[in-house]
Automatic annotation (TrEMBL), chain A:
Keywords: Signal. It comes from Marinobacterium lacunae. Pfam families: Peripla_BP_5 (PF13433). Residues 1-25 form the signal peptide. The keyword Signal applies. The keyword DNA-binding does not apply. This is Urea ABC transporter, urea binding protein.
UniProtKB/TrEMBL annotation, chain B:
It is a multi-pass membrane protein. Pfam families: BPD_transp_2. This is Urea ABC transporter, permease protein UrtB. Residues 1-25 form the signal peptide. It comes from Marinobacterium lacunae. The lineage of its organism: Bacteria, Pseudomonadati, Pseudomonadota, Gammaproteobacteria, Oceanospirillales. The chain crosses the membrane at residues 249-276, 304-324, 336-354, 388-405, 472-496, 502-521.
Length: 428, 538
């Protein structure tokens, strides 16, 4: 009897809270944040969740959007790829968010892709990736290979005179595709087969002794050698430690990394790394007004002066501002209208220029090469003169050479083969 | 009159004497000013000009400036554009002006900006330092200088080394200098000289000597010389292969010692007690985090903090281990599946707890000075010091543990309980108490392993996960309940992994080792060194 009463009370309370929630929902625009807060990827993704909260908070201070306040809906997919799809569905169907900002690994993006296409919502993806994809519902604010890997190789070849190449990566889709593109690109520039050494290691590889020793031998054969590293996440620390331990310095064999940024360096003793390189579209050390402002508000928001900023954070900054502008332009948060409005939107980036959303749902970005300094920051040693437009389909790969992506009418296709004149059946 | 003339003459002489002196001092000053101006530029090209200007003019401060640049202690003041040496870039710390050696206190950090180098400049500076280093009274400095120059032997360098060779009296340095001279002479030498040079290079393992020979063999028209060079190359190749084998063995032993360290705690909890403890990796992680905390507490004594961390990590992990045993595992003895699930849950709880307390980001644990660096046996074989320490540490922990189990009353009771619980209880051993202590001992050893691992890999919430499978592999392979088995298994798996790796790649090597262990366990389910006797059957 008593139990029943209690249950009824609970049910009533729940009903009331649901009611009050839906009442609130009418006055706010919801924005989904889909980043892992636990599990392996929490190391990188937690920061992006905080960045989104900060951006939404600031927009609300400026008066919100379309006269309404923005409300962040944060979920935790726990570094579990199938859970990403479930949580994405929950965000779109249950919470009715207008757009989602999230994902880090390519696997997680591939896992949520069908959900976004089925429910026709918007995803802003902030991390550099391997390309070979262009979905109607995804906007890629991170770098495509031609906005990071190719300019980095050009820098090594032209400025440092590198002739031998070690392509070292973790064994999964991003390094494999990127290395395939790089290998094709290097060969197209006349690098011989025996001057390229490709090496894959498992996730979280921690014993780098023989690989570093191999690299050392490969590099001691007379020609200037460099390592292009797509080694991901945690495996980087023991890799650099081993380089330092075996006395490989950056002026003998420089390592250019695509996954090592300020945040990753914060967990390493950087002394043996000085001079190694990274290619990104943003560095915390870049001197610009927007950047100073961004860093200042980040420190204020996170209440810690020691926290760093990094490239994916800038990507969210750009993506969020683009979405805000597009919603203003469209006058609604309806995904279809916003998708159309987004193309051609230009917003300031943090390095002192503008980023424009292209018809292939990638953005234009400057490419910067930085050398690691002993304080864990990067000194920019080279940058492209203008911005580089992201290329969804690589020009160096057989099979994707002839494919273009253009989401404007009348083509409206992410996978159009210019030779056969056909848009492939898949949506991405 | 004469005196006057004489006086005038003297004055003239003095003037003449003074003019060149003054001119050179003024020249130095001009060079310094020009270089200082170029150094404060943002462009690396201008910095390069500055460095070349100093070196070409043999400016007396070149050496000092190069050292400061390399150690990134050279700053400039944005206001007066002067160069300063700053050892500690903090407000109120001194900045020493290079113009007059006078210290000023840093009022605002932003006033001073560091002069940064890029890789090209760094190698230029290193070359200049090498040239200066040739004249250094310090033997190791001279040796390093010559070896630095091996890779870039041109006319100038050859002349420089020949000059230094005449004055050199250390045999070791002379030997490397001979190689340098041979490399420098080889491309343009006549036949007799070339033959000597090839003979000199044949005895060297320096990669630069090898490259010079390869290049020479490819470009010379003289068939006899070509054959000689190729023969020398083949000899070098063979010796290098031998040392490569030694290196692989060393890598294998050091990987093996990491495996043993990670697994040895498990050898006690799983091997002796039979508890499948999935939280073993997290106990290692706790040890690594303890190291981090201790290092934060004593930031000025990095080496000492590591030593203090060893007992602390043991205590922390042991206490957590005892808490796990008393709180969870003791209710689950004899139910391996439930134990497995429960401890897996504990491992997730511990991971998330660390994420909440320390943030999900990796923590940086510094390596003390005496642990970094290389011991160079010869140019193709060098042993990393940190790995040597880890191997030694592993053996130390192993024998200490062996001693505890074989020679102490706790060890006696542990063995008694694990061999026959009922009989031990009948003899008056408090088996519950022994269980808790044994589990604590195994966990504590895991914590100690964490201290060692903090020097090699990430200190982050995922540290434990990457070692748990390896740990079980080692214990099962070695034979459950046998410490010696764990040691032999760990070291041999390490060596096997490293032998396979260059040949099959890191991913495949790991798979092959796993497949091998599965097959091995099929054949000998009790591992390398099975326990015999009644205990094994019970």
């Amino acid at each position: 009897m008593r139990m029943k009463k209690l249950a009824a009370g609970v049910a009533l309370g729940l009903g009331a809270s649901v009611l009050s929630f839906s009442a609130l929902a009418a006055e706010t625009i919801k924005v989904g944040v889909l980043h892992s807060l636990s599990g392996t990827m929490a190391i990188s993704e937690t920061t992006l969740k905080d960045t989104m909260l900060m951006l939404i908070d600031e927009q609300n201070k400026k008066g919100g959007l379309l006269g309404k306040q923005l409300e962040a809906v944060v979920v935790d997919p726990a570094s579990n790829w199938p859970l990403f799809a479930e949580k994405a569905r929950e965000l779109i169907e249950k919470d009715k968010v207008s757009a989602v900002f999230g994902c880090w690994t390519s696997v997680s993006r591939k896992s949520v892709l069908p959900v976004f296409e089925e429910l026709d919502s918007l995803l802003f993806y902030p991390v550099q990736y391997e390309g070979e994809e262009s979905s109607k519902n995804v906007f890629y604010t991170g770098a495509a290979p031609n906005q990071q890997a190719i300019p980095a190789v050009d820098y090594l070849k032209n400025e440092l005179g590198v002739e031998r190449w070690v392509l070292a990566g973790t064994d999964y889709v991003y390094p494999r595709t990127t290395n395939k593109i790089l290998e094709a690109y290097l060969k197209s520039m006349g690098v011989a087969e025996e001057d390229i050494l490709i090496n894959y290691t498992p996730f979280g590889h921690s014993d780098w002794q023989s690989i570093v020793s191999d690299i050392k031998k490969f590099g001691s054969e007379g020609k200037k050698t460099a390592v292009v590293s797509t080694i991901n996440g945690d495996a980087n620390v023991p890799f650099y430690k081993e380089l330092g331990a075996q006395g490989v310095t950056a002026d003998d064999i420089p390592v250019v990394a695509f996954s090592v940024g300020e945040e990753e360096l914060a967990g390493i003793d950087t002394a043996p790394l000085v001079g190694h390189l990274a290619a990104w579209n943003y560095f915390m050390s870049v001197d610009s007004e927007q950047n100073d402002e961004f860093i200042e508000s980040w420190h204020k928001f996170i209440k810690n002066e020691d926290r760093v900023t990094n490239d994916p954070m800038e990507a969210h900054y750009i993506g969020f501002n683009m979405w805000v502008e597009a919603v203003k332009k469209a006058g609604t948060t309806d995904p279809d209208a916003v998708q159309d409005a987004l193309i051609g939107i230009a917003v300031p980036n943090l390095t002192g220029g503008y980023a424009t959303m292209m018809p292939n749902h990638h953005i234009s970005k400057p490419v910067l090469i930085g050398e690691i300094q002993d304080d864990g920051q990067f000194a920019v040693v080279s940058s492209t003169p203008g911005t580089v437009v992201g290329d969804a389909w690589s020009n160096y790969l057989e099979g994707s050479k002839d494919i273009i992506s253009d989401w404007r009418a009348p083509l409206s296709c992410g996978n159009y083969n210019v030779k056969t004149g056909k848009c492939s059946g898949q949506n991405f | 009159m004469t005196i006057r003339t004489f006086g005038g003459f003297c004055l003239l002489c003095l003037l003449f004497l003074l003019v060149p002196l003054r001119a050179s001092a003024a020249g130095d000053e001009a060079v310094y000013n020009e270089a200082a101006k170029l150094l404060t530029s943002r462009s690396f090209d201008e910095k390069e000009q500055a460095i070349r200007l100093l070196a070409d003019n043999n400016h007396p401060q070149t050496k000092q400036l190069m050292t400061l640049l390399m150690e990134s202690r050279l700053y400039f003041n944005k206001k007066d554009d002067g160069l300063y040496q700053i050892d500690d870039y903090e407000t109120d710390k001194p900045a020493i002006s290079l113009l007059n050696n006078e210290p000023v206190a840093i009022e605002k950090k932003r006033d001073f900006k560091k002069i940064t180098l890029n890789n090209q400049l760094r190698s230029l500076v290193r070359q200049i330092q090498a040239e200066i280093g040739l004249k250094s009274p310090d033997l190791s400095r001279r040796l390093a200088a010559v070896r630095e120059m091996l890779g870039s032997m041109d006319e100038d360098a050859l002349a420089l080394i020949r000059k230094a060779y005449a004055k050199e009296d250390s045999a070791t340095v002379r030997e490397v200098m001979q190689i340098a001279i041979a490399i420098g002479e080889l491309p343009a030498a006549d036949e007799a000289r070339a033959r000597d040079a090839v003979a000199t290079l044949a005895g060297s393992l320096e990669p630069d000597a090898r490259n010079a020979l390869t290049q020479f063999a490819g470009s010379t028209d003289n068939a006899a010389l070509k054959a000689a060079a190729e023969k020398a190359l083949a000899e070098i190749e063979q010796r290098a292969r031998f040392y490569g084998g030694v290196e692989t063995l060393y890598f294998g032993l050091s990987l093996g010692s990491v495996l043993v360290l990670a697994g040895i705690g498990l050898a006690i909890t799983f091997g002796v007690m039979g508890v499948i403890n999935m939280a073993h990796g997290e106990l290692i992680m706790l040890g690594a985090y303890t190291t981090y905390v201790i290092q934060q507490l004593m930031p000025n004594h990095i080496g000492l903090s590591l030593i203090v961390a060893i007992p602390c990590a043991f205590l922390v992990s042991a206490l957590v281990g005892i808490a796990i045993e008393r709180g969870v595992i003791r209710f689950l003895y004899g139910r391996p599946l439930e134990t497995l699930l429960a401890t897996f849950g504990i491992s997730l709880v511990l991971q998330q707890a660390v994420r909440t307390i320390f943030s999900p980001l990796n923590r940086s644990v510094a390596t003390p000075e005496w642990m970094s660096g290389l011991i160079e046996i010869n140019p193709v074989l060098s042993l990393t010091t940190s790995r040597l320490y880890i191997i030694a540490f592993c053996l130390l922990v192993f024998f200490a543990l062996l001693l505890v189990l074989k020679r102490t009353s706790l060890g006696l009771q542990v063995r008694a309980v694990s061999q026959n619980r009922a009989m031990a209880r009948a003899m008056g051993v408090r088996s519950e108490w022994v269980d808790a202590l044994t589990f604590g001992l195994g966990s504590g050893v895991a914590g100690v392993a964490g201290v060692a691992l903090s020097q090699l890999t990430n200190v982050g919430p995922n540290l434990g996960q990457s070692y748990i499978i390896d740990s079980f592999m080692v214990v099962v392979f070695g034979g459950v309940g046998n410490l010696w088995g764990t040691l032999v298994a760990g070291l041999s798996l390490g060596v096997a992994n490293k032998v396979l790796e260059p040949w099959a790649g890191a991913v495949l090597a790991k798979i092959l080792v796993l497949v091998f262990i599965i097959l091995f366990i099929q054949k000998r389910p009790r591992g390398l060194f099975p326990q015999r006797g009644r205990a094994a059957e019970g």
